[in-house]
Amino acid sequence: MVAALAATGFRPTALQAGTPPDLIAREGVLQLAPANYPETQVWGYNGAVPGPMIRLPQGARMTRRFQNELPQPSTIHWHGIRLDNAMDGVPGLTQDVVEPGATFLYDFVVPDAGTYWYHPHNRSYEQMARGLSGALVVEEAGGGPEVDNDEVLLIDDWRLAEDAQIAGGFGDMHDWAHAGRIGNWITVNGLGDWRKPVQQHSRHRWRLVNTANARIFSLEAQGLGGWIIALDGMPLDAPQPLDRLTLAPAQRADIIVDVTASVGEEAFLVSFERDGGYAIATFDVTAIARSERLDAPSPLPPNPVPQLGPLETARKAALLMEGGAMGRMGGAMMGGQMMGMREMAGAGKVWAFNGMADMPDEPLVAADRGETVRIDITNDTAWPHAMHLHGHHFRQIGSNGTAGPLRDTLLMDRGETAQIAFVADNPGDWLLHCHMLEHSAGGMMTWLRVA
Ligand code: C2O
Ligand code: CU
């Protein structure tokens, strides 16, 4: 494999014996908007957006000393990693918040190869909107597929004011009750105009990560032909032809693409919005790598995720998602009391899970270790949601009983019901929440306990 780390602008962080590298959440500046605008004040890991890329071999130990230099408490969550519960980064559930000026040592093993990422899990609707997130890539133990170039494309959505600074209003209840904080400026790896030279018939592995607060991307590759080989870090049994690709907040897709455009032409990664499509990444075809396209890639080796047990005897739970604008919900339980929607909004809640707007004292489900768990989820709201389960990957079960690919985040459309199933093999307390960050803060959060 020809890794092209140097070309990505990321520096891989090497682990020195004895001293874990620092990951410092702090202020930084970035030329986020076009060059005729001022630089933007951001919050980044080590001051950078995206944060330092962490690249590790499968089965390795990930050790970082997190230092919080933000003006508010924070933690780091390692999204999609099936890690030790104490390292999951959830304040009040798996650890205390890391106060400004304090540090916390994250130390865990990465069992699965694939594309993951890290981000704060306290006031994430503000901390991530200000820029805090980074990629965590775990390399296949036997080496990845043969490619000319392997890189991460972190796709983000920013809400910028006229002066190119990050707009305030993080607690805007209108955003919270609607689609979340949708921005007005899209970047790839922190750049509004991400561009690089490529060669015709060269092969690339792109690891796409949606780090936006709330925006759902609908992507298409033009002048490129390819396959999806993994979703949310987990290999697909068979590569799927790359067509329109939907990437909800927190979701990832590993794609293999061959440049099919000719020398002198451009190839694009295009994002489709209501008002049409536009390029978020541009590739200038400057030379020819080889005379013909390579053969279709083989599937990646599977990760060591346990097989589902029989669903008939699985431990079952039901989750009803309600609330938000244009919904039917009249109110929900908050602090042990029934509250109307207006009262709830005054207290910062606009959604509910099973009739409760705050984090319940009791888990949605308590499973024995190794048990198969089945959750029936109903989205009785007027909005799509991106449901994320910590510490496990699940499969969506179709109406005919078929099991979909392993995922950690499921996009559910308005009015949709879904059944998910997973083996509860990782002991501890794990969140299940909407990854549209204004929605989880606004009431869409619950948890599971695995004994
Ligand atoms: Cu990426 Cu609980 O989140
Ligand atoms: Cu949501």
From TrEMBL:
Recorded hits in PROSITE patterns, A to Z, give:
MULTICOPPER_OXIDASE2
What residue stretches are annotated with the Plastocyanin-like domain? Answer: 33-140, 152-265, 349-450
Name the keywords, alphabetized: Metal-binding, Oxidoreductase
The UniProt entry, under InterPro entries, shows: Cu-oxidase-like_N, Cu-oxidase_2nd, Cu-oxidase_C, Cu-oxidase_fam, Cu_oxidase_Cu_BS, Cupredoxin
Task: Kindly list the GO molecular function terms attached to this UniProt entry.
Answer: copper ion binding; oxidoreductase activity
Which residue ranges traverse the bilayer?
none
Highest rank taxon of the organism = Bacteria
Judged by the first EC level, this protein's enzyme class is oxidoreductase
Q: Which residues form a coiled coil?
A: none
The question of whether Oxidoreductase is a record keyword is answered with yes
- The answer to whether the entry has keyword Ribonucleoprotein is no
| EC assignment | 1.-.-.-
PANTHER family, alphabetized = MULTI-COPPER OXIDASE
Name of the featured protein: Multicopper oxidase mco
Q: Which gene encodes it?
A: mco
